[in-house]
């Protein structure tokens, strides 16, 4: 089964009209709980849920960190060049790229998002309408972890000098 098939199968029971979905990233700096915003970008929310449920993100790292800008993860190679083997079409919306907002990374093609995501460190208004925002940190404790990760020392390529790992990603339904 391809990863796209596995992801589609993993989200077959997702019902945004009946349930609220959160995603918890367990990192070596603490947990980050994210509230998803399916009313803004249902395709991106389903993609993240499906990738999380299939274990895609378990063991990956935040491979790119730029203080005052964002922390980025979701690359299976840890280089910023990998993905799940399929793309998700852009769902640009009016959700501002504010502090703690979850958004999807992509290449120059707006429809090239796959598995890489980023979480904003402070407002990034220039990203509004250019990248798909689809969630945000659920609480102050999660935002503190994001900010702590945002302060790790990096090299000239924005790669952390010490791995910032995502040990497990779980989906919480309520």
| Order of helical and strand elements | HEEHEEEEEHE
Tell me the distance between the termini: 29 Å
> In what order do the strands lie side by side in the largest sheet?
1-2-7-5-6-4-3-8
| Integer average pLDDT | 97
Give the class from helix and strand content and strand pairing. Answer: alpha+beta
Could you describe the largest sheet, including whether it forms a barrel? 8 strands, antiparallel, barrel
What is the number of helices?
3
Strand runs, count: 8
State the low-pLDDT regions, or none: none
The proportion of residues forming helix, as a percent range, comes to 10-25%
**Strand content range:** 25-35%
Cα-atom radius of gyration: 15 Å
Shape: globular
For the structure shown, list the relevant keywords.
eight-stranded antiparallel barrel, single chain, 17% helix, alpha+beta, 174 residues
Could you describe the 3D structure shown?
The relative contact order is 0.26. Helix 1 (3-10) packs across helix 2 (42-53). The two termini are 29 Å apart. 17% of the residues lie in helices and 27% in strands. It is α+β, with helices and mostly antiparallel strands and 174 residues long. The protein has an 8-stranded antiparallel β-barrel.
Secondary structure layout plus pairing:
Layout: H1 3-10, E1 21-27, E2 30-36, H2 42-53, E3 60-66, E4 70-73, E5 101-104, E6 117-120, E7 133-137, H3 140-149, E8 165-173
Antiparallel strand pairs: 1-2, 1-8, 2-7, 3-4, 3-8, 4-6, 5-6, 5-7
């Amino acid at each position: 089964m391809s990863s796209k098939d596995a992801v589609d199968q993993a989200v077959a029971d997702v019902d945004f009209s009946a349930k609220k979905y959160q995603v918890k990233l367990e990192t070596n700096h603490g947990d980050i709980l994210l509230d998803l915003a399916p009313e803004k970008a249902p395709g991106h929310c389903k993609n993240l849920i499906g990738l999380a449920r299939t274990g895609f993100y378990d063991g990956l790292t935040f491979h790119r960190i730029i203080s005052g800008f964002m922390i980025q993860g979701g690359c299976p190679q840890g280089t910023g060049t990998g993905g799940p083997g399929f793309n998700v079409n852009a769902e640009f919306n009016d959700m501002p790229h504010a502090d703690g907002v979850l958004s999807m990374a992509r290449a120059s093609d707006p429809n090239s998002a796959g598995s890489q995501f980023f979480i904003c460190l402070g407002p990034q208004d220039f990203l509004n309408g250019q990248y798909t925002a689809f969630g945000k940190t659920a609480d102050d404790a999660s935002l503190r972890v994001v900010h702590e990760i945002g302060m790790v020392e990096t090299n000239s390529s924005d790669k952390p000098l010490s791995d910032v790992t995502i040990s497990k990603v779980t989906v919480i339904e309520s």
